[in-house]
């Protein structure tokens, strides 16, 4: 039986993330799912971008591609279409995946590319000093909004759902067991899957917003979490500021490659029939 250790590069440790960062929990969860599914490491491809969570590929012993800021999903799209037999993952942060790369996110979801996108959302650009991102909550303090953030933030899961993603889920680093289950379900879905993983950033976001140390931030995640089943019976007012976790969307439909191949096969058959 495989272990998550079979997919890790331990000679690259210790990792570069800050003490208390949630990214390490997500990394271990990804490796654990690979082991649980017993996927051959040569049959996995991962594209990552720039940012704190963009470094996840440094510690995995699988096929990895580290690309420019916001461009991980186009790279993952190319891999998925070039070799549909691969399990393709795309790891990004909220700055990388939703702010700089937001346009690619909605189109990958719209096209239903067979990619599992895992976004570590810590509400800021953690690697470059704690600037606000597209998911930073309104009124939050960041290095670039010292008097309070005035912009309305994205709900990544609702954004992905509206764009056409066939599987959307959310977990927090407080509950890695649930996170692993959701990542596996995302991989098993043939089409575009988005797993939003809420990760604490005690160095910047937590400090600026006086949320305490890493343990306090994890506890806060637990207090804010509402299971999706319970959320169905709550009003918008009751859900204000809460984190709804679990499977939010599960609407399978044929993925982009399958649809494209069908057209090619139909046209090829029609051409051959015409030449007969």
Structure described in brief:
With 276 residues, the protein is α/β, with parallel strands linked by helices.
| Parts with pLDDT < 50 across at least 5 consecutive residues | none
**Percentage of residues assigned to helices:** 25-40%
Largest sheet features: 8 strands, mixed
How far apart lie the N and C ends?
Answer: 53 Å
Count of runs of 4 or more consecutive helical residues: 11
If you compute it from the alpha carbons, what radius of gyration comes out, rounded to the nearest whole angstrom? 19 Å
Question: How would you describe what is shown here?
Answer:
Helices cover 40% and strands 18% of the residues. With 276 residues, the protein is an alpha/beta fold. It has a single domain, classed as Rossmann fold. An eight-stranded mixed beta sheet has the order 2-1-3-4-8-7-10-9, with helices on both faces. Strand 7 (167-172), helix 6 (176-188) and strand 8 form a beta-alpha-beta unit. Helix 1 (23-37) packs across helix 6 (176-188), helix 3 packs across helix 4 and helix 4 (102-111) crosses helix 5. The radius of gyration is 19 Å and the shape is globular. The termini are far apart.
């Amino acid at each position: 039986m495989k272990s998550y250790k079979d997919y890790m590069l331990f000679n690259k440790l210790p990792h570069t993330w800050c003490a208390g960062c949630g990214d390490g929990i997500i990394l271990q969860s990804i490796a654990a799912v690979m082991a649980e599914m017993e996927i051959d490491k040569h049959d996995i491809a991962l594209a990552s971008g720039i940012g704190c969570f963009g470094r996840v590929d440094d510690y995995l012993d699988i096929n990895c591609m580290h690309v420019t800021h916001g461009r991980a999903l186009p790279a993952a799209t190319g891999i998925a279409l070039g070799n549909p037999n691969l399990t393709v993952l795309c790891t990004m942060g909220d700055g990388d995946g939703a702010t700089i790369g937001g346009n690619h996110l909605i189109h990958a979801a719209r096209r239903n590319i067979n990619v599992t996108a895992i976004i570590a959302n810590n509400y800021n650009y953690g690697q470059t000093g704690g600037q606000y991102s597209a998911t930073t909550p309104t009124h939050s303090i960041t290095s670039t909004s010292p008097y309070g953030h005035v912009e309305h933030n994205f709900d990544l899961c609702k954004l992905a759902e509206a764009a056409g993603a066939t599987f959307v889920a959310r977990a927090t680093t407080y509950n890695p067991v649930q996170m692993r289950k959701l990542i596996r379900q995302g991989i098993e879905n043939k089409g575009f899957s988005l797993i939003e993983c809420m990760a604490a950033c005690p160095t910047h976001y937590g400090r600026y917003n006086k949320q305490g140390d890493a343990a306090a931030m994890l506890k806060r995640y637990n207090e804010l979490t509402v299971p999706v089943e319970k959320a169905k019976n709550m009003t918008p007012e009751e859900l204000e500021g809460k984190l709804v976790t679990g499977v939010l969307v599960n609407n399978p439909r044929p993925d982009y490659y399958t649809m494209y191949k069908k057209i090619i096969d139909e046209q090829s058959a029609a051409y051959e029939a015409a030449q007969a």
